[in-house]
Design brief:
- The chain is of the alpha/beta class.
- It has 2 domains: about 15-60 and about 160-335, Rossmann fold (3-Layer(aba) Sandwich); about 65-155, 3-Layer(aba) Sandwich (Rossmann fold), CATH 3.40.50.
- The chain has 14 helices and 10 strands.
- The strands form 2 sheets. A 6-stranded mixed beta sheet has the order 1-2-10-7-8-9, sandwiched between helices.
- The chain is globular.
- The relative contact order is 0.16.
């Protein structure tokens, strides 16, 4: 059993240079997504906000960057044998799409409660989907069984150095396009995006501060950073389905525990309000998961007054049947 499997904190094996190499590797494959601004948002938050729209990325999420980078780093022999992951949606779609582009067989273990739109998209990219119970123990067990049966290589959603480096390329592009930033914010689930963002920021000059944001109901990353050791959340219930990880990965934690200033949390009502704001005022289709940094700015969870702030808008894969009634109900309540 490895040190990581025993839960021991490991040393980060990558730095800012690996994010730069990932950007070169991904140049022919990943979209350079736009950065947008909003005077309304700036006025409300008292700062200048630059939003990196990864909802326009392939598969509608930043996850394509990490999945494709990880596959490009594998040997032809490993690719030929196929890869596997477990995912509630976006990483599964991303790996399926990357596999389709590179002709790599992909299997995705998904909880049976995953949004239908994400499951159908994963199948549409040609992956084989194996359903399991909605907990991480069931995911791990199902993936282990498929690996034993078919010899797949695991591409973990966040506990993978290639994935982390790939995710960091979104922040690298954001900083390059917006110019120097004082602060960069992104959502936290398993920690891959936050770790990659922290590495990209560390390689910039001047280096912006980095803050993560997560739901109050799934605050394991905040508690982990404050305690200095990884904490768990059990089976968190939050509308931000992409952030329902039970614990951050040891590899992301090895990075962001040393490079991230703090992690703040927002409530479910604040997430819904921010999601509505993004749809109504920014005219962008966004998942509740990616609304959490906007919620933190709107609610003052982080003091950003007078700063230049970059935000990673992580994705736009929405389960309309679930989300629209919630947003509509909030609209009625507001009136």
């Amino acid at each position: 059993m490895s040190a990581e499997e025993k839960g021991v904190v490991v040393e980060a094996a990558i730095g800012p240079v690996e994010v730069e190499r990932a950007a070169e590797r991904l140049a022919p494959w990943a979209r350079k997504t736009p950065v947008v601004t909003s005077g309304t948002l700036d006025d409300r938050c008292g700062c200048s906000v630059f939003i990196k729209c990864e909802n326009f990325q392939k598969v509608g999420a930043f996850k394509f960057r990490g999945a494709m980078n990880a596959l490009l780093m594998l040997s032809p022999e490993v690719r030929a044998a196929g890869v596997i992951t477990h995912s509630s949606g976006n990483h599964g779609q991303a790996l399926a799409c990357a596999g389709q582009l590179l002709d790599v067989p992909v299997c995705v273990v998904m909880p049976r409660t995953a949004p239908a739109v994400k499951r159908e998209a994963t199948l549409g990219y040609g992956a084989r989907v194996v359903l399991c119970e909605p907990n991480f123990a069931a995911r791990d067990q199902a993936a282990a069984q498929e690996i034993e049966r078919y010899g797949y290589h695991m591409v973990h959603p966040f506990n993978d150095w290639g994935v982390i480096a790939g995710q960091g390329t979104a922040a690298l592009e954001l900083i390059a396009e917006s110019g120097p930033l004082d602060l960069v914010m992104c959502p936290v689930g398993g920690g891959g995006l936050l770790a990659g963002t922290a590495l990209a920021a560390a390689g910039s000059s001047p280096a912006p501060r980095v803050v993560g944001v997560e739901p109050e109901a799934a605050d394991d990353a905040r508690r982990s950073l404050e305690a200095g050791v990884i904490q768990v959340s059990g089976d968190p219930a939050t509308i931000a389905d992409g952030l329902r990880s039970t614990a951050v990965g040891v590899r992301p934690f090895a990075v962001f525990s040393r490079r991230v200033e703090r992690i703040v949390t927002v409530t479910e009502d604040q997430i819904i309000t921010a999601t509505r704001f993004i749809w109504e005022r920014l005219k962008l289709v966004a998942e509740p998961s990616c609304a959490v940094p906007i919620a933190a700015l709107m609610e003052g969870a982080i003091d950003a007054r007078g700063l230049r702030v970059g935000v990673i808008l992580s994705g736009g894969n929405v389960d309309l049947e679930t989300l629209l009634p919630i947003l509509a109900r909030r609209s009625v309540d507001a009136r």
